[in-house]
Structures are given as C-alpha cells and as structure tokens.
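look at this:
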Amino acid sequence: MVAAGAGTDPGWRPPEPVGTHRLAELTVRAPIARPTKVLAAAANYQEHVAEGGGKPLDKGALAPRLFLKPGTSIADPGADIALPAFSTQVDWEAELVVVVGRGGRDIPVERALEHVAGYATGNDVSARSVDYGYRRDTSAAVDYFDWLAGKWPDGFAPYGPYLVTADEVPDPQDLGIELEVNGTLRQKGSTAAMIFTVAELVAFASRLMTLEPTDIIMTGTPAGVGAASGTYLAAGDEMTVRVTGLGDLTNRVVHPNQIP
C-alpha cells in the first residue's frame, strides 16, 4: 500500500510511527465496509449442484447465475451474525471473493482479470427456509423469492480479514477452499472446479451492469453445505473459512438479542 501523496508531492514525508499493537487488541474490519455492489454466483460448482439434487450443468447451455445481496449483508471478520427469526435452517457457503478495482462495461473475458483489485475469503451465509408467519400460495416463483430472501439478512456476507492484491494471486483458479464448523471440516474444494471462472464471472457481470471500483463478487461454493445433510447452524456455532493464501475468516452465529 502506498500512502496518498507519495511520489507526487515533493514535500511529502512518511508519517511518524504511532506505536505497535497486537492483532488480538485490534478490531479487524471487512476490507471494504460498504461495497458499491455485492454480487454472488449461484450453482457455480458441479458437486454443489449435485448435492442439492440437481443434474450436471452444461456450461455451454447456460449463463452464470448472478444475484445481488444488500450492502447491509456485509459483516466484519470475527463479527457475530444474528440468526434471523424467520428461519430455522441457516447454512454456510465458503467462497472466494473478488474485489473490482477498475470499473467497466462489456469487459472481454480475456481482459477481465485486469479489472480485479484483489481477492478475499468469504462466506455466503444462507437461510434455506423462511417462515414469515402468514399463509402464502406455493409456486416455483414463491420458492425462488424465498431462496433469494434467505441471502439478504444483515451480516450474511462476511469477508476478509485481508484483501490480497491480484498481483499476489497468480492463478485465482488454483486456490483451495475449506470451511469448518466448530472445528469440524465441512467443506473442502478448489476454485479449479468452478463452472464459470473468475474472468468469466467478471465479464458476464459487466454485460448486465456497469461494474464499479469496490464492487465485490462472491464466486460460488463447493460441496459440503449443511443443507445436503440436514445440518444447520445453531446459536453459538463458529464458522471458519480458509482460502489458500487469503487468510482465515471466522464468524459466530448468535440469537438476535445478543447483537448490540
């Protein structure tokens, strides 16, 4: 990181050091607290599709399945995440997060990685069921919007603790992804298994909308989510996500009344 003014102002001097602190003494925030947009890819690993009962996807016959999460879904590393009252089936999804550094529209796939500022570890926390407390009809449309609503609660997109710059990640399609719940390994995969690569996701997103600096893209999750085995998060459970070279992301889920 280079301080503002360095190399451009002849009178610039580096700031005086103000002391040192142990990391445990500090509160680490998400690399970008309020991204311009939070995009996420659904069904981007064949094994994850299969564990949900889906048939293998033909990449040549479909487009990336992107959706938006609200800015309020961002959570800091180490932050507690409230379990929403409308769901008893809250789940985890370990993901590689892409941070856009240079905006654009209709970006060619072969130039897409030039628009990436860096990468981070993320968790697309998801409510697999919703109960709003009133009677509704049942249809595919309702199911879809319930699925989408399950992605939106506050804190359901923690990421960090680091933003590793793109030049330090030679190949974003060669990173291991793991997730533990209370120390038990639940997910273990690799970005090599993505259906749509980082470059393809960035390029496709830029066809739908203008990408802007600080946008983030969550790139999908490998197999091992709780829904596959009927195992869901309970208050007090701790999730830790690891992506090779990007650091560990740990968050605990709690009852809503435990959030200040």
User: Anything to note?
Assistant: Confidence is low (pLDDT under 50) at residues 1-8.
